[in-house]
Amino acid sequence: MFMWDPSALLGIALRAAIVYVLLLVGIRLAGKREIGQLTPFDLVVLLLISNAVQNAMTGPDTSVTGGAAAAATLLLLNAGVAVLRQRSWRVQRFVEGIPLPLISHGEILVANLAREHLTRDELLAALREHEVADPQQVALAMLEVDGSISVIRVDPDDPRHYRKTRRRLARRAVPRP
Questions:
Q1: Inter-axis angle of helices 64-87 and 6-30, nearest 10
Q2: For helices 40-58 and 6-30, what crossing angle results, to 10°?
Q3: pTM of the full structure
Q4: Residue that finishes a domain, picked among 96, 111, 127
Q5: In the structure, what pLDDT confidence band is assigned to residue 57 with cuts at 50, 70 and 90?
Q6: What integer best gives the mean pLDDT of the chain?
Q7: Do 117 and 165 belong to one domain?
Q8: 140-163 pLDDT tens trace
Q9: Residues 32, 93 contacting (CB under 8 angstroms)
Q10: Neighbouring-strand partners of residue 151
Q11: Domain range spanning residue 124?
Q12: Domain boundary residue among 39, 64, 96?
C-alpha cells in the first residue's frame, strides 16, 4: 500500500527550490544566448547539469510521487518568478538582464563582447544576417535580453554620418610624401 510522507515531500520541494535558485543564478551569470545559438558544448553542459541535479532534487526517492513533487515545485517557483518579474523591474533586470551595446557608431565595443563571451566572428555573422557587411555601417548593435542581436544601420542621408566618415577616413589616411 502507498503512503504519502509529507516530510519526504517537503524535503523534495525544498531541495528542488534550492536547485532552481542555484540554476537560475548560474544560467543568468553565464550570459545571454538564444537556444538556436547554443553551441554543442553549451548543449552538452545543459544536459549534464539536468542529469546532475536530478538526484539532488529527489534524493533517494525515485518514486513517481517524488518526481511529481519536484516538478510541481519547479513549476510553482517558475510561475512565482514570472509574477515577480512583472511586478518589479529589479527582479526583471536580475532574471533577464539588460540589453548591451556591441557596436556604437561603427566601433565594436570589445569589452562588452568579452563580457558576454561573444567572439568577433559571431558578431560579424549576426551583422551578415542583417545584411550588413561592415561594422562601419552600423549606428548601433545591441545584444538583447533574449540573446538576439538587433542592428540599426547608419542613415546615409544623415549629414552627421558624412562628417564622421570623413574624419574617420582622415585619421586612417596615409600621409602623402
A1: 50
A2: 160
A3: 0.58
A4: 96
A5: confident
A6: 77
A7: yes
A8: 899 988 788 899 998 776 666 545
A9: no
A10: 141
A11: 100-172
A12: 96
